[in-house]
Amino acid sequence: MIETKRQGGRWSSRLWQALFVMALVATVLFETAPGASANTIGLLTGRRADAMERVDASRILLMNAEGESADIVLGADKKVTIRHDDAVRYATSRADEHVSELLQREGVDVGELELIRVSVSETEAQLDIGSNFTYYEVEAVPAEYGTEYTTDYTLAKGETRVVREGVPGTRDVTYEVVYADGEFVSRQAIYEGESNAVPELVAVGTLVSWAQDGDTIAEVVKNEDGSGYLLMNSGDSMHFSRTMDVKCTAYTTGYDSVGTITYTGTTVHTGVVAVDKSVIPLGSTMFITTANGDFTYGMGHAEDTGVHGKVVDLYMNTYNECMNFGRRSSILYFID
Predict the structure, then answer these.
(1) What DSSP element (H or E) covers 164?
(2) What residue ranges of the chain have pLDDT lower than 70?
């Protein structure tokens, strides 16, 4: 009985020796086999993950970091999510640790055609490992200022002046970036945002001294002293020094002994008006419209006489025009 126990002990000892030798041989064979992962080897052999080859910085893509090295220092205690194929793992970065160093420490096996895309915030980082990437970057690019124009009814027509200087700015451009099989394919702008540049503002003068034929008043701008500006529907403007409320009548040649030569010696034509020279000086230039705005005579020049007080006689080409006009309350704008 005692002898049997001794023999059983020797067999047990020999069995454990045989198993140990088999495990040692299997470990050596597996370690030298092509394609064995660093993590698996580390588990079988006790080899440290940081003994693996460090990933080259050229294979690391840092989002929105034009011209900056992608192998950045993550900083201490940043929560890192690593996505590789369908697997997800988590790590915590150490002080002064680069992306490549973290991957090396974690024993992440990056294939020859794979890249690492890095997205970083203040407290977290995400590392995506793969061969094909399409992502979007936003870059602020310089933007020149443009020029905007406005009108200035006080400035002579055709003249300009700079109201506000332009200031250059930037605009956000969104790029689509494509990598395939670990190689860069393209980076194309797909959207441009609004520029924050301040445009130059240039005023263009509209001021004239004589209205176009048929032009009418769009708006009257009055000053406290009685002067002001007529803003015309054509876009022109005229300055008036004063206004006068009058009664207007109409006359033409061939009636009431009216000839073709005015008091001042000019030939009668549309635009000639007869005035009381004690009320309105001869040579005065006026823009004339009825008080209710239903009729615009337009530009008038005081060249004739034959009326008294605040009455103005407007020359017209035909008798019928004169009869249709009759006698109307009107406003004279004295043009400078």
Answers:
(1) strand 160-164
(2) 1-52, 64-69
Residue position matching structure tokens 């030939």: 267
Taking phi over 0 as left and psi of -120 to 50 as alpha, with beta for the rest, 101 belongs to: alpha
Q: What is the DSSP letter of 78?
A: -
State residue 61's pLDDT score. 86
Contact (CB, 8 A) for 129 and 110 = yes
The 3-state secondary structure of 267-280 reads: ECCCCEEECCCCCC
What's 98's DSSP letter?
B
Contact by Cβ (8 Å): 124, 175: no
d(CA 207, CA 309): 31
Amino acid at 264: T
Q: Which residues, other chains included, contact 166 with Cβ-Cβ below 8 Å and sequence gap of 6+? A: 145, 146, 147, 197, 198, 199, 200
In terms of DSSP bridges, do strands 133-143 and 169-180 run parallel, antiparallel, or are they unpaired?
Answer: antiparallel
Which tens digit of pLDDT belongs to each residue from 173-193? Answer: 999 999 999 899 999 999 999
